[in-house]
Amino acid sequence: IKGYVNMPVRVTAIDGTILVFEAELYVVPDMTVEVLLGEDFQLNHELNVLRDVELGTKVLVGKTDYAFEASSEVGPRNKDLEFDISFARSLKQRAGAVRAWEDVVIPAETTKPVPVAGSMDATRTWYVERNLVPLKGDDFLTVPNVLIGGCEGPGPGDDPTLTARKKGLFLPVTNPTKIPRLVRAGTVLAYAKDPQEYLKHADNQEELEGM
Q1: Which domain of life is it from (predicted)?
Q2: Burial status of residue 148 (CB atoms within 10 A of its CB: 0-12, 13-18, 19 or more)
Q3: 3-state helix, strand, coil in the chain (%, to 5)
Q4: Angstrom distance (rounded) from CA 5 to CA 10
Q5: How far is it, in rounded angstroms, from Cα 46 to Cα 2?
Q6: In the chain, what are the domain boundaries?
Q7: How far apart are CA 181 and CA 173, in angstroms?
């Protein structure tokens, strides 16, 4: 390490806004990427990574409404920006976490499907165990035991992005309170598990008849 510098890091948000982050960067000779941002950068700027097998990855910026897309591949250099950024996703997420993909308002005493994201293959079936999502005070949103997934992949000639959104994963979330509640993108709603491991199933016809 030859030292460090304080530099602005610019990223284009999904809506086209240029986001500027201050970063303390160590100067390391012979690196294979121009800028490597790790856990300290992620924590300091409250960056929340949302992964979805079908829809890709996006990063939420703190409690703002801004988000930007992330990829494991470095694309062509954008001359309008100072850096091409390789985003190091070093903050581990709890395995199987199912998170809200976008902000959703759930009316009072209502159940509403919420689009979700996670490290899951949407073409498979997943078991989501019932869960309570804490709100301010002593109130909760509720998620039932449910199977999600089993979506078909894009057909010949289909736009993969549109198909993924049409056939994406949704989770029923109930608001039992007397007022509308906002589910923020990135909120952990429940945890997805392999139904073959967590649900009872028959190994033969005799067991099936006895269930």
Answers
A1: Eukaryota
A2: buried
A3: 10, 40, 50
A4: 15
A5: 28
A6: 3-87, 97-198
A7: 11
- What is the number of residues in the chain? 211
DSSP annotation of 85? -
pTM over 0.85: no
User: What is d(CA 70, CA 90) in angstroms, rounded to the nearest whole number?
Assistant: 13
Q: Radius of gyration (Cα) for the chain, nearest Å?
A: 21
Spatial neighbors of 145 by CB under 8 A, at least 6 apart, are 127, 128, 129, 130
The per-residue pLDDT string of the chain (211 residues; one tens digit each, 9 = 90 and over) reads: 677 777 888 888 888 888 888 887 777 777 767 777 777 788 788 888 887 766 678 888 887 888 888 876 555 545 444 434 444 333 333 457 888 888 899 999 999 999 888 766 667 788 898 899 988 878 999 999 998 886 655 455 544 433 334 456 889 999 999 999 999 888 889 988 888 877 766 566 666 566 5
- DSSP assignment letter at 178: S
∠ Cα 176 179 177 (to 5°): 20
The amino acid sitting at 107 is P
